[in-house]
Design brief:
Elements lengths: L4 E2 L2 H5 L7 E4 L9 H10 L4 E4 L10 H6 L3 E6 L6 H9 L3 E4 L2 H13 L3 E4 L13 E4 L2 E7 L3 E12 L4 E2 L8 H6 L1 E12 L18 E4 L16
Parallel strand pairs: 1-12, 2-3, 2-9, 3-4, 4-5, 9-11, 11-12
Antiparallel strand pairs: 6-8, 7-8, 9-10
Family: Belongs to the 3-oxoacid CoA-transferase subunit A family.
Organism: Raineya orbicola
Pfam family, one: CoA_trans
Length: 232
């Protein structure tokens, strides 16, 4: 099988053009492609449409790209931890499409599965339904939602092999696996990289056929978004 390992992530990320549609994996700050985001900052690419469950925080994750005005539009679900995002939204500087979290996940999954549209009860009777088709099934109203696809998916896994097969840990599985299937080009970064054949096929979450490039990242910060401790 083709060896998909790259050693210069900046060089590959630099191929992303202005105006591209990106999917960025992660859940909160868990499982985000830290090195790919850093490479985007270096590249200076602009007018990006970013599809991500969240918008990072002011000084980490996608929040860094918002600060440098490299993002034109966010398609997200949870954005409550980023003051710069809030400021740009309220001032009209940033286009935003807010989507119920389950609907966002399913729209991405549908994009990867080749399903152009589906019906869901989430959002019926709210602003989410404006301009969208509503149908009744078995006495209940459902909203038609369309798939989401991207030019590039930037995902982060715990372990991968040289053929691009990936294994995720914990909540990093919430969005990374489906995003890896829904883009024209998928760039994966991993904490551990092993030779092809060393991963147990029964535990692979993303088959290598979906991955175009794999990068062995080091020194991940893995910042915690909110830390709650018990008062003794």
């Amino acid at each position: 099988m083709v060896n998909k390992v790259i050693t210069n992530l900046d060089e590959v990320i630099a191929k992303i053009p202005d105006g591209a549609v990106l999917m960025l994996g992660g859940f909160g700050l868990c499982g985000i492609p830290e090195h790919s985001i850093a490479a985007l900052l270096k590249s200076g690419v602009k007018n990006l449409t970013c599809i991500s469950n969240n918008a990072g925080v002011d000084d980490f994750g996608i929040g860094l790209l918002l600060k440098t005005r490299q993002v034109k539009k966010m398609i997200s679900s949870y954005v409550g931890e980023n003051e710069e995002f809030e400021r740009q939204l309220l001032s009209g500087e940033l286009e935003v499409e807010l989507i119920p979290q389950g609907t966002l996940a399913e729209r991405i999954r549908a994009g990867g599965a080749g399903i152009p549209a589906f019906f869901t009860p989430a959002g019926v009777g709210t602003e989410v339904a404006e301009g969208k088709e509503v149908r009744e099934f078995d006495g209940k109203l459902y909203l038609m939602e369309r798939w989401l696809k991207a030019d590039f998916a930037l995902v982060k896994a715990w372990k991968g092999d040289t053929a691009g097969n990936l294994i995720y840990k914990g909540t990093a599985r919430n969005f990374n696996p489906m995003m890896a299937t829904a883009a024209k080009v998928t760039i994966a970064e991993v904490e551990e990289l092993v030779p092809e054949g060393e991963l147990d096929p029964n535990y692979i979450h993303t088959p290598g056929i979906y991955v175009d490039y794999i990068y062995h990242g080091k020194h991940y910060e893995k910042r915690i978004e909110q830390r709650t401790t018990r008062v003794s």
